[in-house]
C-alpha cells in the first residue's frame, strides 16, 4: 500500500514522502495513529493544504519531547522482582511496567515510545531506548533485581547470578568433601558394632583349634578303658 507520511518515521522517510509499506503495517499502525494517509489523489491535495499546520504541530511536539528527554535521558530506575538463583524472573518486566515507573517519577511516556522488543525476563541492568519523537530518542537504565541491596551490586558491575552448571558443580564438590570428612567415622562406628556370624577373630579361631585336640584325646582315653 502507498501512503503519505504525516511525520518523519525512521527507516521510512520524512513528512510528505510517499512510500510503499505492507498493508498490515499501514492498517494496524500508520493509518489509525494518524501518522500517514493513503496515497490517493484527494489525500495528496489534502496534505498540501494541511502541510503548514502539520509542520507547526511537529515543532511543538518536538519541543515537548525535548524537554521530557532532558529529564529522562540517562536516568536510572529499579524494578524488584522474585527470581531464581540463576536470575530467571518469575514473570517479566514489560513496557507497561516501565511506563508506570516513569509516570510515578513525574514523566508521561506512551508504551509505544518504549523501544523494548521483548519483555525483560532475567535480573540485570538494561539500557532501554525511548523514542519520544521521530527526531528525539533518549535512553534510561533499568535495573531488575531481587532486592535493593542486589540492585546496588548490579549497578556496581557485580555478577549476582549463579549459573546452573556452576551450582551443580559446587553442590557436587560439597557432597564429595562431606563424604571424605565423615565416611571414616562411619566406618569406625560400623566396625565397633557386633561382627556378623562367620566372621570370627583370631581368638575365636584359636579357641576352636585348641578344643579339637582335647576332644580327640578324650575319645582315645574312653576306648582304652573299654578294652580293659
Architecture overview:
The chain is an alpha+beta fold and 228 residues long. Helices cover 50% and strands 19% of the residues. It has helices at 23-30, 41-72, 95-104, 148-155, 164-192, 202-227, and strands at 2-5, 18-20, 36-38, 76-80, 88-93, 120-122, 124-133, 136-145. The strands form three sheets. Strands 2-1-3 form a three-stranded antiparallel β-sheet, covered by helices on one side. It has a three-stranded mixed β-sheet with strand order 4-8-7, with helices on both faces. The N and C termini lie far apart (137 Å). Mean pLDDT is 81; it is low at 198-210 and 221-225.
Which key features would you list for this structure?
228 residues, alpha+beta, three-stranded antiparallel β-sheet, 6 helices
Provide a brief overview of the structure.
With 228 residues, the protein is of the alpha+beta class. 50% of the residues lie in helices and 19% in strands.
SSE map:
Elements: E1 2-5, E2 18-20, H1 23-30, E3 36-38, H2 41-72, E4 76-80, E5 88-93, H3 95-104, E6 120-122, E7 124-133, E8 136-145, H4 148-155, H5 164-192, H6 202-227
Parallel strand pairs: 4-8
Antiparallel strand pairs: 1-2, 1-3, 5-6, 7-8
Amino acid at each position: 500500500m502507498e501512503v503519505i507520511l504525516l511525520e518523519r518515521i525512521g527507516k521510512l522517510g520524512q513528512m510528505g514522502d510517499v512510500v510503499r509499506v505492507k498493508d498490515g503495517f499501514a492498517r494496524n499502525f500508520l493509518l489509525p495513529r494518524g501518522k500517514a494517509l493513503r496515497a490517493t489523489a484527494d489525500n495528496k491535495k489534502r496534505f498540501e493544504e494541511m502541510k503548514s499546520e502539520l509542520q507547526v504541530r511537529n515543532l511543538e511536539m518536538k519541543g515537548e519531547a525535548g524537554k521530557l528527554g532532558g529529564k529522562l535521558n540517562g536516568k536510572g530506575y529499579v524494578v524488584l522482582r522474585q527470581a531464581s538463583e540463576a536470575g530467571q524472573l518469575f514473570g517479566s518486566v514489560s513496557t507497561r511496567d516501565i511506563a508506570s515507573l516513569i509516570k510515578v517519577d513525574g514523566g508521561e511516556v506512551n508504551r509505544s515510545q518504549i523501544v523494548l522488543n521483548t519483555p525483560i525476563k532475567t535480573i540485570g541492568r538494561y539500557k532501554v531506548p525511548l523514542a519520544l519523537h521521530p527526531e528525539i530518542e533518549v535512553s534510561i537504565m533499568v535495573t531488575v533485581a531481587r532486592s535493593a541491596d542486589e540492585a546496588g551490586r548490579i549497578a556496581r558491575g557485580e555478577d549476582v547470578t549463579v549459573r546452573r552448571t556452576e551450582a551443580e558443580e559446587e553442590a557436587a564438590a560439597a557432597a564429595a568433601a562431606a563424604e571424605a570428612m565423615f565416611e571414616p567415622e562411619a566406618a569406625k562406628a560400623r566396625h565397633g558394632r557386633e561382627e556378623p556370624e562367620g566372621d570370627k577373630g583370631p581368638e575365636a579361631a584359636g579357641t576352636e583349634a585348641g578344643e579339637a585336640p582335647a576332644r580327640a584325646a578324650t575319645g582315645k582315653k574312653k576306648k582304652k578303658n573299654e578294652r580293659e
